[in-house]
User: Fold this.
Amino acid sequence: MREMLKIVISLFAIFVGAGLILSYVYAKTSTVIYNAQVREKEAALKKMSPEAEKINVAGKWLLYEKPNEYYEAKKGNKVISYIASTTGKGYSSYIKILVSTDPDLKIKAIDILSHSETPGLGDEIEKKDFKKQFEGKVLENIELLKVETKDKIQAISGATISSRAVTKGVKEAVKLLNEKYGKGLSKE
Amino acid sequence: MNEKINYWKIFKNGIFSENPVFRLALSLCPAVAVTSGVKNGFLMGVAVLFVQTMSNITVSIIRNFIHPKVRIPSYIFIIAAWVTVTDLMMAAYARDVYKEMGLYIQLIVAFAIILSRLESFASKKNVLPSGVDGLGMGFGFLIALVLIGFVRELLGKGALWGYQFTPTKPLLIMILPTGGFFVMGLLMGFFNWINRRFFGGKASADVHMEAHRHGSH
Assistant:
């Protein structure tokens, strides 16, 4: 009985001690981490539409049950760009992607925010050459091919699954923007 | 306690004769998982160095207070606490590094080398030698990871620390887990050969067994 009590006290004291240290570190770092995350998100959005004065959340949508948002980037009162965050179902991870389009829903740029695809193969989706292919494309042209192509998207050799994931994610985002802002709906 | 403690010997021990990866053959899983490049290997090594040293010191300080029957849960909890501290600090003050390494940092809790040093060294020795042992083991691990990362990144990507200097990937397989096993096995063999040839030492499998026997009493 005494032995048991000793064990409990020993473990308890260690847990409490470590808990105190951890709560102190957490209190010190949590605000720093939160601020950094907010700043990173703003910076990522800003990068997608550098000329915009204001980027507002226009709505939320789901892809692969992951929460995503879409935004209106405005300069003055004029919408100069739509931005959507989207998800790709990659080889070993969900890929977080940002897509920006001009008011005619032609892609301006895409950016890969985070992923954990195979280093050396799948992570080439981050490379400029691959991302650049999306620029200027409209919905019908967002399609992955394994051969050299000008008006479609060419897959990275050795990383077809990751390339397809990004392409599909981008396509879904552009489809959504088309549904929301597509032709016929003139804006004031 | 009367005899003078040779700190340099304790430190060196972790790097050469009991190198965690090449000699003790411990924590091989992370040694393959994170060494696709020099940079990742280096950062992981630094994190392990910190956790190992701090855990060694903590356990050494409170070693008389830890009840022997629950020492393993106590050690694990102490390691977990230091890993969480590392994780939070990196997330707050080294964002770029954290984005690449965040996933792996939390896994340090389960690294065999850390627990094994607490059990076989820190729980029996004073604070200073324990700290030095932690530093030595940490550096040994760091050096091993950087070496494996160096070979894999150079052969697999034709790059070092992310700087590309060949247009193509010379030996793609080196980047994949398969290549990790190849490189680790070859380096381990190389270390053993050096040890046998020049120092008349034992192969790492023997050291491994001895470390375990040592730890069990």
Q: What stands out?
A: Strands of chain B lie at 159-160, 163-164. Chain B touches chain A through 31 residues (CB under 8 Å). Chain B has one domain: 12-212.
